[in-house]
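Section: Multi-chain targets

For targets with more than one molecule, the full set of components is provided together so that the structure can be written out for the assembly as a whole rather than chain by chain. Components appear in the order listed by the source. The example entry contains three components.
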Amino acid sequence: MSTATATSAPEQKKDAPLGGRFVGAAANYIDERTSISGLVKELGRKIFPDHWSFMLGEIALWSFVVVLLSGTFLTFFFQASMVETHYDGSYPLMRGVAMSAALDSTLNISFDLRGGLLVRQIHHWAALVFVAGIGVHMLRVFFTGAFRKPRELNWVIGFVLFVLAMGEGFTGYSLPDDLLSGNGLRIIDGMIKGIPLIGTWTSFLLFGGEFPGDAIVGRLYTLHILLLPAILVALLALHLVLMIINKHTQFAGPARTNSNVVGYPMLPVYASKMGGFFFLTFGVIVLIASLFTINPIWNYGPYDPSPVSAGTQPDWYIGFADGALRLVPPGWEFVWLDRTWSFNIIVPLVVLVLFILLVAIYPFIEAWITGDKREHHIAQRPRNAATRTAIGVAGVIFYATLWAAASSDLIATHFMLSMEGVIHFLQFTLILGPIIGYFVAKRIAIALQKKDREVVLHGYESGRIVRLPGGEYIEVHQPVDQYDRWKLIDAETYEPYVPRPNAKGNIPWHRNLRAAISRWFFEDRLTPLTQAEIAAADAHQHHSLDHMDEEEAAEIAGADQRAAEDGRPVNAVGEKASAEWPSPKALNEANETDEGDAPRA
Amino acid sequence: MARFKKHRQSGRRSPLAAAALIGIGLLITGGVYAGASAAVAATSETEPAASTLTVEDGQKLFQANCATCHGLDLQGTDAGPSLYGVGELAVHFQVSTGRMPLQAQAPQAPQKPVQFTDEQIEALASYVQAVAPGPAYPASEVLDGEGDLAAGAELFRINCAMCHNVAGAGGALTEGKYAPNLHHTTALNMYAAMVTGPQNMPVFNDMNLTLEDKRDIISALLWMQENPSPGGYALGSLGPVAEGLFIWIFGIGTLIAVTVWITAKSN
Amino acid sequence: MAHDVDPLEHERASWKPSSGLAVEVSDPAVNPGLPPHRERITDKDPAAMQRAVRTVYTLFYLSVAASIWAVVAYMVFPLDGTLAAVHNNSMFVGLGIAFALLAIGIGAIHWSKAVMSDKEYIEPRHATRGRDSTREGAIAVFEAANEESGFGRRAMIRNSLIAAVVASVIPGITLFRGLAPEGEDPVELLEHTMWKKGMRLALDPTGRPIKASEVTLGSAFHVIPEELAKLSHHEGYLEEKAKAIVLLMRLPQEDLIEAEDRKSWSYDGIVAYSKVCTHVGCPVALYEQLTHHLLCPCHQSQFDVADGAKVIFGPAARPLPQLPITVDDEGYLVAQSDFTEPVGPSFWERH
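Its structure, encoded as tokens over all components, is:
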């Protein structure tokens, strides 16, 4: 309502501003101090594309909010101290037992605080959902190539977020200082000690002396509620800002190009969907936490180096590391030069670090292979990037085998196998599984590409079998609706790199390498369709359908005529057929109207 | 698939008819099976014996069911070990959990449906005790469940949890063997197992775990059996593996289903 | 791919990104454009729209009711020291909160899908790269700053600045040496345990000493040094226990395979081995009395007690260290000395 800037708006139709006088005044107050109207104008109607797989990152985002909220509640009651105390709360099996204040406070939260157990369970279930959400989101981004330029940096940030989330989880479940997580810390300590040169001292520094010491819970607490969340929130904010700047990718579809976004505006549709999904995620987590136990620390009791529980595993997201340790064959350790080389620790560590690194830098590897420096905003269907999909499947099998190995003893008891058999099988699968998975996935992807191509050019199988006058049976193919068909056509193709000699007449080794890798990447591919080919295929499909139409009409007419000549009643086959089963031509016409459903591909 | 929007087929051709038919078939099959197995179960329940069985009855039972593998004089054969020194407690444990008579050679004798009535088991036990005396039934106080729960739980964690799991959910041993779960074990069988050390379970004599210790452990286990987890369904008390499987299948599964619903076009 | 249209192309004239190995199609397929809008039931039928609206606000009101229920449950299911009370409180409050949240979520989504406009919009993307003019402006900024500060040409200033900033971090890092105690050598500590000559083997956790006659065939005793039970947490109870735990078992003498120099380490078939796994330190506690195998539950390493506790399966690399034992004049089992090698997981300086 400033009089300094003359607004060109004439008298408003309504007397009050949008939302009422109070809202108008408040908006004005804030804008005059923060320039927020600029942000609202820019982002308020921003378009977001709509696909369910684009919401997987939100699973992670909203479950993280749940983790933050529930965690904050817990910090008011949890004591991150290893000072010895004796439990005297409600749980009889722990009464009088010596334990750290950390476990004591966790037991009090669980049994002597209304809602305490509920919030503890919400926190832990939400943490599991959080990391799983990041995982599925990451898989979606990988398999649709959404990490390509300009989003490579966001991929790396996202990957760091994944590692931070695992760290948050690990430090979190180690806080109660119970038997299960304490044995987990013991394992971490053993692994650290096995690192050459720095291991013994690193362990000494981490635990503040000999294991277990009385410092570790406090230190993990600092990491868990201060350092790691701070870095996580900062990187998460950066991740989202980059997503807003780059705009979200979208799948190929009618009207969707690499230079636009097609979808719904942030306000009201997207904000409402995102907000709704937040409540749904929160609600599902709370529902699970109300009905299902998680981390029953009262069963485990305080950490002591002597007892251990059968079925000692970390939370699921650390499973791949535990599994890697379990799959090492016996005896991988040597004393050389008066020092112990623990390859049974070093090899799993190196393998895991390499695996993680490869995943983190994958966008840069692919960018080097393709040399494609354009921006990519169309998400690819996994089948259209067959080698990448196959690599991803191989990676998933590798990770999944390590993950399964962490529960080798439980697999043995539940499927009545021997643990040795399970472990040997998984060792075998770890090496051969990714290789087999690669080949199978690649062939499936290429086969799916061919199927799509066939549907585009020849239509889909309609399920209607026709007997031609010559006696042969054919299945009628219906053309796909042009909008759905576009989704099957719009795909990029690449060719392998052909290196040329440089000025000196040589081909440098790295160009040869790039050529070899790009050949492997792109050797099996379909040639892209041209508009002429599509138009020709269209014409051909309509022609054969029309032809069939005519033949059928002629056949029916002939039958009617013969019936009339013989004096038989005319079997009103044609009419009944057209009422219950319209001829192809009538179906086609129905396709072009905008009433009802279009036939599915 | 082509879709005809005009009208549903009615009568016999209704697609709902097929579903209804399958549903009725399943219900009938399931009902018949449930009824049959209830009938079988009913018939396999034996009425309580009119008279108490004697040691001689136990001998007859032994000769008919056990001697093939354990020898007529309990001396053992190629197929089964000697029973010298096992006593009535071991017999009670093995037979009342269905482990004996053994059905087939395997890494371990599994629990299976019990083949004898309580009277028959007692008769067998007293026969074996008479011929090959060994550990005997305990005083009832040991099994009363009134011991020190916290002490019992601590001893359980140190001596038992590494095989049976902290919550008694069982665990894996080498070469296909396993420690079974303790969710339905009776107090007597808990005692019997500690004292007799069945198969690969170590023997816990009274110098290792005193009678008072055993009473405490049994009390803690009984308490765990009677008091389900306050957090809700315990998912088998198997720990992070079960929790992880559950959250992936039902948690992420539900949430992904929700995203599909959110982004699907409205009717 | 269709020809990409950048509305501001003329402003990024210098940007010609390579398409790398991508195949350019001469006659690319033509995008059919947005399909005609298909009306929803709620668009066509005002009664359906009313129903949808009613569903949405009913869900929101149900949510209010559920939140109230959660508060009521908080009061109506207090804790009274029983597990059942904890379960009821947790479950009913939780279900109330869950339904309150789910109702809001479902209502909001239904509103978005069925009631709000479902018109799709097309918004052009701007290339991420800045416009040529913007980039030149940015370069000009740096050029001016460089000119005015001499950062580029004054190498001495620049290099010494970098050195100073890097160096300033090092004292801070050095402070973290304090994470570990002073005056203690971790290698020294790892090489010794609490066991000494004559120290009695005792039951875990009570500390009652064990007589050799009590260790019968087929039994497994979980053992600590007798002195350990007297230590408090403050005095290092857990740290000593983490190295000193031992498993005591008796095998028939004829089943034991013993090296010459270790024949005196057992007593009448009774052997004592460190319970700390030589893999990464979990307690190797599962003893199978018939097979004489020890199994570690963490990563499934297996050790053969009848043969020096050597590794027979799993990722462990070294046999479990053996504690030399004998009997004192009262018949109690005692250690002859400390372990002759460091117990537990391997570390670099171990030799």
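The first strand of chain B starts at residue 171 and ends at 172.
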